[in-house]
Specification:
- The chain is of the alpha/beta class and 625 residues long.
- The protein is built from 23 helices and 23 strands.
- The strands form five sheets. It has a six-stranded parallel β-sheet with strand order 5-4-6-7-9-8. It has a six-stranded parallel β-sheet with strand order 14-13-12-15-16-17, sandwiched between helices. The protein has a six-stranded parallel β-sheet with strand order 19-18-20-21-23-22, with helices on both faces.
- Helix 10 packs parallel to helix 13.
- Bound molecules: thiamine diphosphate (TPP) and magnesium ion.
- Magnesium ion binds next to helix 18.
């Protein structure tokens, strides 16, 4: 057997550079590059290997330096999402805090079912110098390290304590990353001494390897059961989730909807599956959905969920589908999701499944009255959205006007990235998506701080598209530092910083739950009230962005905002458009509920009232058995 002598780090880099995915006959690099931040845990191991690969040309794996480890996982997720989960990045971090900074990113990846390879460093396998700087000491076991925290948030986890363990760990990692049903964060912890240790590797480890991504077709008996339920439907509704987009099933969905007349609602991950103005499109469903989709959801007798994991937002905490006889048919590549809500499971790739279903449903069509009702609701709703887009509020303008101006400004192939705050809800209700990759809202983990980093990854994935990052002031303050990475890499983003001096989202949630917006705005502590409800703080986030190297434009009105967008589009470098908005401006409602428990007993009148409303709403919650 031919062998080659390399360190674990060098072998790892060489292996990762030779992995490919294939779907529909197209081959792509699985690991596009390696994000990293070096410390003593990886600088001389994986770091040396990345340098050597670059210096000698022995492996093609470009290193990207991030400014925060959580952010580099977000960037990898943004990239992988844009590339429909067929390609991603590796992330190398030092031991201790560098590694645990990635735990939040890992959870985000796993919850959103997006592949990312995490390479946290670990303390010496030999334990030669323990306890090391940053080593956790557990008196019960010397086998425990902070990297055990990745276990519940990873779809595969391993620690390579000897070089011989590396090949099997890597093969398992690649299998999980490329398995559309299992994918998420994959973690291989690498003790710092092992990274630098040499070993004689079989040549075969480094051969180009193609991971085929199949399109599983439905099992015939399951297909028959699903078809029977669907054919019996009088008021069916499709819920299109992220799986539709990852499977590139938009055209198949459109054909299926046109043939059957079944209206199509979407989730946060699935928005754009069908263009917003398609006659079958009824908008977002659930707690932040459109009243059109939600009216149809309330009456639906059969719900066809495609590539959705049915989060509480999608089901309005299990109140959205209100028909007591409602049944679910779930087309999903993951059996785990296909089985939800006691649905008839149809375990298959979304596109393959839709194509097969379309054949089986031949001749079926919803009745004209149902279609007419959906159209009528849709026409009314369009007027509401138009009004919200052009409210004439302020200054400062309403957030819905900023979203409207952006929607009208953006071209079909442009991308909007968002994750947390009041914007995901407004976007889910109001955004008019015209391309399956246009709407990039991370709402599985709704992680403040995803926006700029995720936008960076999205832009890396598709440099031809203009990427607009929408970020609230709260999210910006949590994680703005990847602006510096974008500057260094000459990556252009347009960041729209929506500043409303605090948490508009949690403020209005707090108010609706009787908690009086307590502790949700960025204000001075008022000496009289003792609360954080004094004057506005002298914080200038636009100046902060400029200090990080971005070009900055400031807008006070919607007209100025439009003008800034024009200028940002022609700019070459990363540009931040700062706009202040009124957190109390009105926005249309979804007319649906979200289950957030309210204190059962309270001395406060506001809480008691909210509790009564909570108990009433809770009665509408159903187990979907
Ligand atoms: C990391 C993280 N911490 C806390 C939360 C809870 N949370 C959700 S939205 C929000 C406030 C967001 O503020 P901002 O970005 O300014 O958006 P706004 O609500 O003002 O639209 C908070 C604290 C979260 N989603 N993520
Ligand atoms: Mg805010």
């Amino acid at each position: 057997m031919e062998t080659v002598r390399l360190t674990v780090g060098q072998a790892l880099v060489r292996f990762l550079a030779s992995q490919w995915t294939e779907r529909d006959g197209v081959e792509r690099r699985l690991i596009n590059g390696c994000f990293g931040i070096f410390g003593h845990g990886n600088v001389a191991g994986v770091g040396q290997a990345l340098l050597e690969a670059h210096a000698t040309g022995s492996a093609d794996l470009r290193y990207y330096m991030a400014r925060n480890e959580q952010a580099m996982v977000h960037a990898s997720v943004g990239f992988a999402r844009m590339r429909n989960r067929l390609q991603t990045f590796a992330c190398t971090a030092s031991i201790g805090p560098g590694s645990t900074n990635m735990v939040t990113g890992a959870a985000l990846a796993t919850i959103n079912r997006i592949p990312v390879l995490l390479l946290p460093s670990d303390f010496f396998a030999t334990r030669a110098a323990s306890p090391l700087l940053q080593e956790l000491e557990d008196p019960r076991s010397y086998d425990v390290s902070v990297n055990d925290a990745f276990k519940p948030v990873s779809r595969f986890w391993d620690r390579v304590n000897r070089p011989e363990q590396l090949p099997s760990a890597l093969l398992a990692a690649m299998r999980v990353l490329t398995d559309q049903a299992e994918t998420g964060a994959v973690t291989i912890a690498l003790p710092q001494d092992v990274q630098a240790e040499a070993h004689d590797w079989p040549e075969g480890l480094f051969r180009a390897r193609v991971w085929h991504v199949p399109r599983p077709v439905p099992e015939p008996a399951a297909l028959a059961r699903a078809t029977e339920v669907l054919r019996s439907a009088r008021r069916p509704l499709i819920v299109a989730g992220g799986g539709v987009i990852y499977s590139e099933a938009s055209a198949a969905l459109r054909r299926f909807a046109e043939a059957t007349g079944i209206p199509v609602s979407d989730t946060q991950a699935g928005k754009g599956s069908l263009a917003w103005d398609h006659p079958c499109a009824v908008g977002g469903v659930g707690a932040t959905g459109s009243p059109v989709a939600n009216a149809l959801a309330r009456e639906a007798d059969v719900v066809l969920g495609i590539g959705t994991r049915y989060s509480d937002f999608t089901t309005a905490s299990r109140t959205a589908f209100g028909n007591p006889g409602a049944r679910f048919v779930n087309l999903n590549v993951a059996a785990f999701d296909a089985g939800k809500h006691a649905g008839v499971p149809l375990v298959a790739d979304a596109r393959a499944g839709l194509e097969t279903l379309a054949e089986r449903m031949h001749g079926y069509r919803v009745d004209g009255a149902y279609t007419a009702r959906a159209r009528e609701l849709g026409t009314d709703w369009r007027r509401v959205v138009d009004r919200a887009y052009h409210l004439g509020h302020g200054p400062p303008p309403a957030q819905t006007e900023i979203l409207g101006a952006l929607n009208e400004f953006m071209q079909d192939r442009d991308v909007v990235v968002q994750a947390a705050g009041s914007m995901p809800g407004d976007l889910q209700r109001l955004w008019r998506a015209r391309d399956p990759k246009q709407y990039h809202v991370e709402y599985g983990y709704s992680c403040m701080g995803y926006e700029i980093a995720g936008g960076l990854g999205a832009k890396l994935a598709d440099p031809e598209r203009e990427v607009f990052v929408l970020v609230g002031d709260g999210s910006y303050l949590m994680m703005a530092q990847e602006i510096v990475t974008a500057v260094a890499e000459r990556i252009k983003l347009i960041i729209v910083l929506v500043d409303n001096h605090g948490f508009a989202s949690i403020g209005s949630l707090s108010e609706s739950l009787g908690s009086q917006r307590f502790g949700t705005s960025y204000r001075y502590r008022d000496p009289q009230s003792g609360l954080l409800d004094g004057g506005i703080l002298p914080v200038d986030l636009a100046a902060n962005a400029a200090s990080l190297g971005a070009d900055v434009l400031r807008a006070r009105t919607v007209a100025e905002f439009r003008n800034c967008l024009e200028r940002a589009r022609t700019a070459e470098a990363i540009t931040v458009v700062h706009v202040g908005t009124d957190p109390l401006a009105p926005a249309p409602s979804s007319e649906d509920w979200w289950d957030v428990p309210v204190s059962e007993v309270s001395a406060l009148e506001s809480t008691r009232k909210a509790r009564a409303a909570y108990e009433a709403a809770k009665r509408g919650q159903r187990p979907y058995l």
